[in-house]
Design brief:
Low-confidence stretches: none
CATH topology of the largest domain: Rossmann fold
Strand order of the largest sheet: 4-3-7-2-8-1-9-10-11
Protein name: Dynamin family protein
InterPro entries: P-loop_NTPase (IPR027417), TRAFAC_Dynamin-like_GTPase (IPR051943)
Organism: Micromonospora orduensis
Largest sheet: 9 strands, mixed
Number of helices: 22
Amino acid sequence: MDEAAWGLLHQALDLYRANPRAVGQLRHQVARLEEPLRIAVAGPWRSGKSTMLNALMGEEVAPVEGADGAFTWYEDAPAPHATAYPAGQPPQELTVVKSATGMRVDLGWGAGEVRDVVVRWPTRALRQVTLIDTPALSGTGERGRVSVMDRVLRDADAVLFLTRDGRDSDLRVLESGRESAVGQAAPVNVIMVLSRADEIGGGRIDGLLTARQLARRHYRDPRVGALAVNVVACSGSVGLAGRMLSESDFAALATLAGVPRAELDPHLLSADRFRRGDLPVRMDPDLRAALLDRFGLFGIRLATTLVRSGFDNRVKLSAELIRRSGLTELREAVTRCFIDRRDTLKARSALAAVEALLRAEPVRGSAELAATIEQILAGAHEFRELRLLVALRHTRLGFDAELAAEAQRLIGGDGVGLAARLGVEHEATVQRLWEVAADAQWRWRDRAEDPALPLAQRRGAEVVVRSCEGMLAELAAGGR
């Protein structure tokens, strides 16, 4: 797939060789193929974009103060560094202030409208991806929301779309962007995140469970299925608190957990009661404020409950907060849906850019190149797998649950590695992998050639067979 995109980009370069601006755009797309995967974090105001970014990175890096209307790019680098790109002016270096928990960047020089800010920060989380913090998709009117979403879908290879509860107005923003994007027969590059999962249950301790149940309902909704490849509930604030939990934080939470619940709970009904009330234990006001800032009331309630339940040291509590927040599930979804499919998603971005150029500036030969793009999108096996994943999710093909689950696994829905596709242990021998793949190939070929089955099922089975053939070819070439 990436080879096809590479070749098509060079065909386009030859086609537009007399147009320096178009050549510059195309060369930029060629360079993008070698860059880390770009993942944009988008959503309406107060959807928790910056908190989610920090949770994914495990450090307090976002937001850049004063850059509300800009796209902020977070990239890996050996040392902290930040640059602003104001409209019509030279780039401006920004001051980076390091702290014990991360850094702070302040856009305080007032150089006019800023389109982009690039923050370079040394962290493992950014070695495979570039994260993009985007302007809020609210408060700018319908045209402004569509404009921001258009740029998100153009500049990013994949999108985490944050929404408080999957409300109709948020879905309309995604729908408007999808209408103008290329290759959208299946929502291959969007994960919808219920990002205020701790608020969905009304602040109750079981609120995160309620949020997961809501995410599953959204996942089964055909309208959502036409817009996102997965739906995950995640509290960024709880996940970040878990990743950054210090010994002093744990000590303070353990002190609170030592108070009987009936005595502590009245002080956790509001932030003002916790901050200013007479707690049953001695606790400095600054420490109370710091706990509220890092955990919120829900996080404090959850953490103290967990300490009482046996998560009685920093490591245990940190791991359980991260698990309950949904952050682990979100990171696994990002890996499975995005990072594991990096080459396919980046090739898709390149094809989208070329198609947009051909549509905006048609030249002699552009119609033929556009037809080639259409053929690639329709025929590339990687895209056929992704389209089948969406169809299986909504049982459109009529497979029973067991067959649908096997098909989903074989085409990479549970991970694109051979062991994950074949459902065997990671330590399985090549012989074992070959036997399982060959067996699956023959069984699904029988379904693909069964004239009694509906055409949609036979075509779906053909995709599965092609995936099995690809695994056998990889094993024959010495892969695992």
